[in-house]
Amino acid sequence: MCGHCGYHMQTVYKHTPRYVCRGMVRTTIARSDCNSVRSPVVDQVVVQAFFEAIQPAKLDALEEILAAQRLEQERLEQHWQEQLKRMQYEARLAQRQYDAVDPDNRLVAAELERRWESSLQQLRQTQEAFDHFQQAPPPDRIPSNLREMFQNVSDRLPELWPSLSNPQRKELLRSLIRQVIIKRPVPDHIEIRIVWVSNCYTDHTCLTPIHGERNVSGYDRMVTRIEELCKQGYDDQQMAEQLTKEGYHSARSTTGVTARSVQKIRLKRNWNLRFTLLRSADEWDDHWTVNGLARECEVNESTIYRFIYAKVIPAEFVFHEQQTGIYLFPKDDQLIALIKKSLGHPRKNRTNQQNPH
Hints:
Elements: E1 10-12, E2 18-21, H1 23-27, E3 35-38, H2 39-53, H3 56-100, H4 106-135, H5 144-153, H6 157-160, H7 166-174, E4 177-186, E5 189-196, E6 201-207, H8 219-231, H9 236-245, H10 259-268, H11 274-280, E7 283-284, E8 287-288, H12 290-297, H13 301-309, E9 319-320, E10 327-330, H14 333-354
Antiparallel strand pairs: 1-2, 2-3, 4-5, 5-6, 7-8, 8-10, 9-10
């Protein structure tokens, strides 16, 4: 059932089956469906709730509720019967009083006639209400054979479920579920109310994949959070994991935020990662980067990396940025002199080898 308009929803079998409500389109001038959800998302919630309901403890609780409802039904029926008998007696009494009055006493006769008519009207209303009460379906019972079957398969049914046919699955679900009401208050959330045969209900909320990233609940807050985490030095994967822990999710994911979604949001706003900023900068936190040191020494970056690996640059001059691991070097004249001195030796050796005399 559609939770927006109350009409029955239809199943539309496309690439991904959907439950669609077209009640408003058929009955009003509405141009679009008032409700449309992915059926696998709803089915998973309903089936899982059914598995939980057929546990022996839940069946015992259901039997207690149904038994209490049957007692209440019997009590109400007795109440209606007593009230109906009282209305019938009052109507007969009013008629006898009217029949016994002297017709010449018109004022008294008119008053008694009015009382009789009022009693008859109350009798009709009580009879109609009692008839309506009797038309209401009595509380269901769980058939003994079905209950015994549930108790035997409650542990195995989840693994047997994929092998059952659709008619078998529907028959099992309908044995306990009277109605499923679906509502979609926002694009990425579905509210599901399962009405059981006891007329009790359970409410469930679940996420559903959507196409537009902007339609994700809390999207603006998530964008702000990405900017904060980016400035703190998180990479895309780390940001995705942190956002997932905080309860955010991507448009096409119901389990959390993907690194790809974070990257798209970040690149669209030209927010560079700390690693990228460091790699392109000459200085960072009063230190030279590889780019900056190479510029100071008038060499290319590969020479600096080669000097690091060969330990030409002593370890006490090599630092790592804490979050990214990028090389940093102190702004020390001694380091510059050491590198320039090291650059001179290879040239001199090559010259000596070419001119031995």
